[in-house]
């Protein structure tokens, strides 16, 4: 797990250069392999705050808050748990006369993968296939069933459908999805919602005519959203191995997406 440490000395507290020096902390954390990088910042008084209001760019001089503690530097660390990150932050000398804010990086939101396949069918036929929920269970290695939630529903923005997914470990999840784009024959996209209604992922098909008549260049994309998903839970539990867990899942998704397109279209590409 990666964390950002915001080093915030209290400028009203007088300390000696020796007390404020972070050289020992840097050497210790570099030796432990915890610290990935870090930088001191110029004084807040030399900074600028940029805002845009009614189209006008407003630039103000720092410091930007009334707080006595201003961010004086940043470090990026990698730890197995939040508790370890707190322990690392507590050993920083500024923690004794200021504060060190610990913020976890969100490595899951925005995780993206895609595949592109040349399909021997025209875009209009491919669009009809990618929007045919009744057959998705035949083609997908993970999705076992999908159906519209409304009677006589059709692919359109705002339409909802339900899908069931079976994962390699045997776990089965039922999810609600909302169509975000239905532009025949150019594209079809949908969001998968978590239990709170927050988008857990965005899936999309983009269709372009191929280089030969009757061909389609079909791009299938997955982007992880801010919602809670099995991947987010697994990444959180894995600690320092979160990046490997995310990469492994994206690799599996690429394989599944390619297999789905090939089964759907009969494409050997």
Description of the molecule:
There is one protein chain. The chain has 269 residues and is an alpha+beta fold. Helices cover 25% and strands 37% of the residues. The chain has seven helices and 13 strands. It has helices spanning 17-20, 23-32, 82-90, 123-130, 136-139, 230-238, 242-265, and strands at residues 2-9, 35-40, 48-53, 56-61, 73-78, 98-104, 112-119, 143-148, 160-166, 172-183, 187-193, 199-209, 216-224. Strands 7-13-12-11-10-9-8 form a seven-stranded antiparallel beta sheet. A hairpin with a 5-residue loop joins strand 11 (187-193) and strand 12 (199-209). Helix 6 runs antiparallel to helix 7 (242-265). The model has no long low-confidence stretch (mean pLDDT 92).
């Amino acid at each position: 797990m990666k964390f950002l440490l915001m080093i915030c000395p209290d400028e009203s507290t007088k300390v000696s250069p020796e007390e404020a020096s972070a050289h020992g902390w840097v050497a210790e954390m570099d030796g432990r392999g915890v610290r990935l990088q870090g930088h001191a910042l110029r004084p807040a008084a030399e900074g600028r705050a940029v805002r845009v209001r009614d189209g006008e760019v407003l630039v103000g001089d720092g410091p930007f808050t009334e707080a006595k503690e201003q961010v004086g530097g940043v470090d990026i660390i990698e730890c197995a748990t939040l508790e370890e990150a707190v322990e690392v932050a507590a050993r920083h000398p500024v923690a004794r006369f200021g504060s060190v804010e610990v913020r976890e990086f969100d490595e899951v939101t925005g995780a993206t993968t895609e595949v592109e396949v040349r399909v021997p069918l025209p875009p209009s036929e491919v669009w009809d296939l990618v929007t045919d929920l009744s057959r998705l269970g035949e083609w997908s290695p993970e999705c076992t069933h999908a159906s519209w939630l409304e009677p006589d529903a059709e692919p359109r923005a705002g339409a909802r459908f339900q899908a069931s997914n079976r994962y390699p470990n045997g776990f089965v999840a039922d999810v609600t999805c909302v169509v975000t784009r239905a532009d025949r024959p150019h594209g079809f996209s949908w969001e998968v919602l978590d239990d709170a209604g927050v988008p857990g992922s965005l899936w999309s098909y983009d269709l372009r005519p191929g280089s030969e008549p009757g061909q389609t260049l079909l791009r299938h994309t997955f982007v992880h959203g801010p919602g809670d998903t099995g991947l987010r839970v697994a990444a959180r539990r894995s600690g320092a191995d979160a990046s490997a867990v995310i990469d492994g899942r994206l690799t599996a998704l690429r394989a599944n997406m390619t297999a789905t397109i090939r089964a759907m279209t009969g494409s050997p590409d």
